[in-house]
Design a protein that fits this description.
Elements lengths: L2 H15 L3 H19 L9 E7 L2 E8 L2 H12 L6 E4 L2 E2 L4 H15 L26 E3 L4 E6 L2 E8 L2 H12 L6 E4 L2 E2 L4 E4 L8 H4 L8 E5 L5 E6 L4 E6 L10 E6 L2 E6 L8 E7 L3 E5 L5 E4 L4 E6 L4 E5 L4 E7 L6 E2 L2 H4 L2 E2 L10 E5 L9 E7 L5 E5 L8 E3 L3 H10 L37 E8 L14 E5 L2 E3 L1 E5 L6 E7 L8 H14 L5 E8 L2 E9 L2 H9 L10 H11 L9 E7 L20 H8 L5 E7 L10 H25 L4 E3 L6 H11 L2 E6 L10 E8 L5 E3 L3 E3 L2
Helix pairs in contact: 4-5, 8-11, 9-10, 9-14, 12-13
């Protein structure tokens, strides 16, 4: 066949294949346009569920929305499109009763706060709908993988998840919401090419018992030609996704093996096809990647990564302020992109070792406490691209220097509730954070709710149960206030346990872990408990708030022998902001087991890490937070006779200052300080703290003085007709 004939044949094939393309392309573009319009509507949230169908330039809207303004706005926006002639609006307006609103919010925190699903709630997570539909099918508009629709107590789950297990977890959490009458689970499972690896069982893992074994779980990825894209996410399982541009994924394209705490993922297709791997890596796990010419991408706060490639492109987007970097390559990469502010902490030696011709070293002092480390080895990568990224909001790792910005946010924007009009139209202005934009309560006007945690005990220091609204009197600057909310002592509690695992408590590490277990066991079955650890100048969330006692005890066992500086004030700030700040309208407590010795109180040295948050600023914020702080102050042991008198006196003064500061912090939040000679003497403290929590009521009122000028307002709470002692925070700043 001649070249002209071949060209003619190809032209005919192209024309035949594209005969139906214009109409299909136009409909597909319209689907994308409408999806984008609906997703960007003001006020749309995961409590709304919108679908649409396109037929002959007519768009039919179905589903449910929570406000009349949203229903009108969606239809109005779609009618303006040139490709649309008419809109049939069949969207239903669901009820906005107080009970339904409460169920929605509670369901959100239970579902998206679960360890299996919490990664999906991160603002940094890039959610993509995986279920493919033709342009003429019913299109589903997903803002997040799970939408929560509530009407008259009946809860419906809609959306898409990768694993069937995640679908059942969401349903289980929905059934646990107080007030739910029924649950309908319409979630679609899409992860046919996704593999989830079971978490390491530390309790039965012999490597964990062996002190000579590796310090953390390791994931090793081998993929000679395909891409390896790794993202560090807040999850408990390694999640592997496989794609190929040449054919569908087949069985045997990848193999996964495990030895002790090391998992090996190898891509070796029998037909030599190129397979790309996308991996969700839990925080704290070590990463090893080896390729020949496949691109490598790592995103997130990595603990440790060892990367090897001959010629593949390498892209790293991590918070470089917390991660070290080094590279040793045979030749300079064809393209190098390093941000100017990062170059100041990196250096290329003039005379690299013989085995490497191009090298980068991190210039920061090795004694400086950072979280992670990345090392790159190779011949000549096609490109080396470094990008700076922020630590994600849902990260279980918080660096102590983040506390300054966190505290500033809490001072400038005191987490007010967002108020909305009764008719559901335009919301009133407010400065609530994203987590509070759920219209948890509707009011007639923009008033501020003041919430108090009040401990009520009798003369024998025993809790006084059974009190109601009529039994309390609240005075603000001497003026009686009308109490609107009272939660009794039987309501569930959110209890965060902050363990000081810095060098000062290293000798008592086993006792620290045992004390954590005892606090978990002392809490009531309905209480939510979280375990946080301070070490090496960063805060680590060992376990978020959960009622699963067995899981908490297992997580405590996994806490390794940590050490490092003690930026305690930073840790307290970050501990409150991590979860309790988003649960401001619930009953919260923060228990701090520490010697109270922030590095600010100690002589400075090269490894000292004082808090960036001044104690005076922390004390001011403490008056605003809705969480009682209970420091368990560990008194230092007496020194031997050989200690110099001047040094002993300095230590005594530092201890007194630390104790007094913890006392002030407790009083400012309505909490109470507990003292122990050592961690080993905490047995008597467990029940005291548990008894204290059983004495706490939650009171809420709307101040009669609505002129919020930032001045301090003094609060007094009395119990009528009872010989009771009340302890609560002394007041608040009227922002």
């Amino acid at each position: 066949m001649s070249a002209r004939a071949v060209a003619a044949s190809l032209a005919l094939l192209l024309l035949a294949g594209s005969s139906a393309t214009p109409a299909q392309d136009q409909t597909a573009r319209l689907v994308d346009q409408i999806t984008q319009l609906i997703s960007s509507q003001r006020g749309i949230r995961i409590y709304d569920w919108v679908n649409f169908i396109i037929q002959d330039r007519q768009v039919t809207l179905t589903g449910t929305v929570t406000t009349r303004a949203l229903k009108r706005g969606i239809a109005r926006a779609i009618r303006k499109l040139e490709a649309v002639d008419s809109v049939v609006d069949e969207l239903e307006l669901v009820s906005s009763s107080g009970d339904d609103i409460g169920i929605r919010i509670n369901a959100y925190w239970r579902i998206y706060g679960h360890p299996e699903i919490r990664r999906l709630a991160s603002p940094q997570s890039e959610f993509k709908q995986r279920l493919r539909r033709t342009p003429r099918d019913t299109q589903r508009v997903l803002l997040q993988p799970i939408h929560i629709v509530v009407e008259d107590g009946h809860l419906t789950l809609e959306g898409e998840l990768e694993q069937l297990r995640e679908k059942w977890v969401a349903e289980e959490q929905a059934y646990a919401v107080l007030g739910v009458r029924s649950v309908t689970n319409n979630i679609v499972v899409t992860g046919t090419d996704t593999e989830e690896l079971q978490p390491i069982d530390f309790e039965n893992d012999p490597w964990w018992r062996d002190s000579a074994s590796i310090d953390e779980p390791v994931v090793r990825v081998e993929n000679p030609a395909g891409a390896v894209r790794v993202k560090v996410v807040n999850t408990e399982r390694v999640r592997l996704r496989r794609t190929s541009r040449s054919r569908p994924i087949q069985a045997g394209d990848t193999t996964t093996t495990r030895l002790g705490r090391k998992t090996r993922i190898s891509a070796s297709p029998a037909d030599g096809a190129q397979v790309d791997l996308e991996i969700d890596l839990p925080y704290g796990q070590r990463l090893e990647v080896e390729t020949v010419d496949g691109p490598i991408s790592v995103t997130g706060l990595i603990r440790r990564a060892d990367l090897k490639t001959s010629f593949g492109r390498v892209e790293l987007a991590v918070p470089w302020k917390s991660v070290r970097f080094a590279a040793a390559l045979g030749r300079s990469p064809a393209h190098v992109d390093i941000p100017p502010h990062l170059r100041s902490s990196l250096s290329s030696p003039g005379q690299p070792p013989v085995e490497t011709a191009w090298q980068i070293e991190d210039l920061r002092d090795e004694r400086q406490s950072l979280y992670g480390r990345i090392r790159l080895e190779g011949v000549r990568p096609d490109a080396l691209v470094l990008r700076d990224s922020a630590i994600p909001e849902d990260s279980p790792i918080r660096m102590h220097w983040q506390a300054s910005e966190t505290l500033g946010t809490m001072l400038k924007r005191p987490y007010r509730m967002r108020m909305s009009r009764r008719d559901g139209d335009e919301p009133l202005t407010g400065d609530a954070p994203a987590e509070a934009l759920d219209e948890t309560v509707q009011f007639n006007s923009d008033v501020r709710l003041v919430q108090l945690s009040a401990s009520v005990v009798d003369e024998q220091n025993r809790p006084v149960p059974g009190l109601g609204r009529e039994d309390f009197e609240v005075l603000e600057d001497g003026v009686a206030q009308e109490i609107g909310i009272v939660q009794d002592v039987d309501s569930e509690f959110n209890l965060i346990l902050l363990l000081d695992c810095s060098t000062s408590t290293l000798g008592d590490r086993n006792a620290v872990l045992e004390s954590a277990k005892q606090f978990v066991l002392a809490a009531r079955p309905t209480d939510q408990v979280g375990i946080y650890v301070l070490s090496d100048a960063y805060l680590q969330v060992v376990s978020p708030l959960t009622a699963d006692r067995d899981a908490l005890l297992r997580m405590i066992e996994q806490i390794p022998r940590l050490s490092g500086g003690t930026p305690l004030y930073d840790a307290i700030t970050l501990s409150y902001a991590q979860e309790l700040a988003r649960r401001r309208w619930e009953r919260n407590a923060l228990v701090v087991i520490s010697d109270g010795m922030d590095n600010e109180l100690l002589p400075r040295n090269s490894r000292s890490v004082p808090s960036v948050v001044a104690f005076e600023d922390l004390l001011r914020v403490a008056a605003e937070i809705n969480s009682a702080i209970y420091p368990i102050f560990l008194e230092p042991e007496e020194f031997g006779v050989r200690v110099e008198r001047s040094w002993r006196e300095r230590q005594r003064q530092s201890t007194d200052r630390a104790r007094n500061r913890m006392q002030q912090l407790a009083e400012q939040t309505g909490g109470r300080i507990f003292r122990a000679k050592s961690i080993r003497d905490l047995d008597a403290v467990y029940e005291e703290v548990a008894e204290e929590l059983r004495s706490i009521y939650t009171l809420g009122y709307y101040p009669s003085n609505q002129e919020f000028d930032g001045e301090w307002r003094r609060i007094r709470v009395h119990v009528n007709g009872h010989a009771a002692h009340v302890r609560t925070r002394p007041g608040y700043y009227g922002w």
